[in-house]
Specification:
The chain is α/β, with parallel strands linked by helices. The chain is built from twelve helices and eight strands.
Amino acid sequence: MKRFCLFLSLLWILPLATSFGQENRPELGINLEGYDYPYPVEYYALHSQGQALDMAFMYEHAQRPNGRTVLLFHGKNFNGAYWEQTMKVLLEEGYDVLVPDQIGFGKSSKPAHYHYTFHQLAENTRELVDSLDISKVTVLGHSMGGMLATRFALMYPNEVEKLILENPIGLEDWKRKVPYAGLEQWYRGALNRTFEGVKSYMMSSYFDGNWEEKYNEWVYLLTAMNESPDWDRYAWNSALTYDMVFTQPVVYEFDNLEMPTVLIIGQRDRTALGTGMVPDSVAATMGNYPELGKKTADKIPNSTLIELDGIGHLPHIEDFELFKSKLLPALKK
């Protein structure tokens, strides 16, 4: 069965339904107004591309600090809240933890117009890090956050002690196999996003058909703002960031990474952009994480590959204890 292009094609065949499957949970604003994050949220006043923006973040200090800070980058379909368990454990281990919502995501601003690049998001984050007087960080990026973490490490190698990539996308260049989907196409798909459509996509690509009730939280946070009067602005930001992910690969620069790098790869993951836009025979060659993990580790000069059998796209959500057992030793090496 053909997998779908980040639930784009699937959403077009489903009727718009904002509450179906959400079990009467409240509607939210496009900046997740009304939803509490696991730790206090602060805002960095960012001036970028001629406009004033608010960059939301959580920044927590360990009670028994070890002198190190971990910077966490969220994925495309997520926000900082899904790092709750990871933050808790890191704090207990003595790490200070910084978790930003990138512009266009979570509780951060959704500008009407913004030129999204991984360079720009990395620069925004660097400004935030500097404003907090943090000199060095260990960077952990998941999914799209892995692409951003790679760009951040390439731009600021002297500030990154270690790079950890958890099921990062961008380990292959989809443009070589998939026809270009323009902004209008991404925008229409985002406008028609539904709870059941997102759930079906995640179940297929992220969890290989294995669904648990706890995963509904992340579907809810992608669809609970469908009734917002600003929904079209949210959808436009989503389209812009899809285009960023598709057109700005980092796969050709892994050999330039200078710091120790750890790849934590769930082997059941099959996430790839554009599989719904190509023949099944081509789609079958995409998102092969067991193969992509090995190829990427071979490209990075000082890398370690950790393979998680039976785990999909979100190790820190699907099996946190397993993820923790691999993450903590990797941080201490």
